[in-house]
Amino acid sequence: MTVHHIIALACAASALQAPRATPARLRPVAAESEECIALGLETLNEVYAQWGVCVEESTAIKVGGLLFSPQDPRTYGTETVDGIVLTRNPGLGIELLEVANNNEGVGIVVVDGTVEGSSAADSALQKGDVIAFVGQPGGPFESVEAKTWDDTVDALGRVEGDRVELVVKRLVKRPVVDVTVKHPNGDQPDQVLRLFAGENLRRAMLTRRVALNDPLARRFDDNDVGGDCGSGGACCTCAVAVLAGGRGGW
Fold this sequence. Notes:
- This protein has two helices and 13 strands, in the order βββββββββαβββαβ.
- It has helices at 149-158, 201-207; strands at residues 2-11, 35-37, 51-56, 65-70, 76-87, 94-101, 107-114, 130-135, 141-143, 163-173, 176-182, 191-196, 238-244.
- Strand 8 (130-135) and strand 9 (141-143) form a beta hairpin.
């Protein structure tokens, strides 16, 4: 999905923060506290190859550990799908494929398909999903995130009863936004930038060498000095305004 937005640059006494939105239920780019594990992916499937595993540190408000993470978090996010309840009779009907295993207990197992006529075939499971938790309907749940094929199958087998509930993660491609930059008074030609939805607009413009700083603008970080602050637009002498955009905006 591509959304087109038009923005304008104008000098102002203070900078306007460009609105932004994070797509619902998408996991953000890996934090600095995460360290990713190098895994040799043995697959030619383009979607399967996008999966990776990162280590997230525990904090006072969350439990860390191994987490499924997209290889390219700028292009992909993850969506969590819960409440998938399967029955054992005549079988769960999940076709699992191990696409990575570091021989140290860390792996990536994806849903490669479902068996026709099984409860899995009628469920919300999709090809390319990875199983994060298994358990009885309503819990308790056991984490199988970043486990090998053997460990995942063993965990499924440990769930008591005829029904098994799954919590899976799914890769979701982040929408792309085309932004047209218009400079004041037509001093410079329009520029078209391709950004990922949720990307910080001002930072994205700076990294793409859009001139945000006006050499004639007054400095607002020092009342005794005028002119270009020499910081490439970081001293807030220019404002970014969204003039028009797609439905839903940023």
